What does this fold into?
Amino acid sequence: MARKETITKMDILNAAFEMASEEGFEHITARTLAAKAGCSTQPIFRVYKNMEELGNELFEQVVVYFEAYYANFPRKNDTPFVNLGLAYIRFAQDNPKLFQLLFASEKRHGSSLYDILNGSNGAVVKEINNAKFYGCTNPSALFMKMWIFIHGAACMSLTGDYDLKEDETITLLEESYHAFMETMR
It folds into this structure.
């Protein structure tokens, strides 16, 4: 009679997600993951041919997690790029290790930063269209200017160098948007 499977693929993936969230993706090895999941390395390699395959699936799970985080983030402002920027900065503050994996790492499993950010819900495209609706003649260029600013603020939060309150961040994002709009007229 075959032995009953006690550690599932989902158990392994959930343990890997937890490790990536707490310690960072770079600390996940077959042995550390097995210890976290409460098993030997055998179940890991029963469901994944190697750690790279597990890493790819984990990366996709973190992308889905970010998309859900953004989708559920409260919308507080009508100014284009402000809600997206606020959610992105807050994600970095709330999930620094996952943020590093998705947005501050060279290895993005074939995805660009734009692809991850735009996601399956078209977040960036919606913001660009919103800027166009509000009269921006070159919303893609405006996005790039805003994005450099937003990404910089989020990365600063990883090092503890960004300590603005939410209302201050909103004001800063609004002011940046309007200043960049002026340069595009």
About this structure: The longest helix spans residues 51-71.
